[in-house]
């Protein structure tokens, strides 16, 4: 898995949040992947910050029911994909915006190969419930970590 939006493991300004004190473009990452496991019926994509000062991390992005024929994501998800809510309660991507002076945050961007064509979840499903539901269907994954600090 790779992203043309990540250079040396860092987000471009276009991908930073445009809220919480940040003024980035809040554009979702473009992703490409290959080497799909046999039996893949759909994909899910997540971006999670385990370093967020919440006690439980912060889900920035969840997309699921991405068709198995897909080899990447552009800024517009493919037909049939579900764009879920992030930890701020808004649907869609929320770019990085760690607190000023906090340590460097790690953003884990993961593409999961799933053994089901659909998780059968509405977009408003809380991120932890989506992750729990997805957990029983993962047959492979690829992950990269991007860094951000202010």
TrEMBL record:
The keyword Lipid biosynthesis does not apply. Pfam families: PBP. Keywords: Protein kinase inhibitor. The keyword Ribonucleoprotein does not apply. NCBIfam families: YbhB/YbcL family Raf kinase inhibitor-like protein. Belongs to the UPF0098 family. This is YbhB/YbcL family Raf kinase inhibitor-like protein. It comes from Kitasatospora phosalacinea.
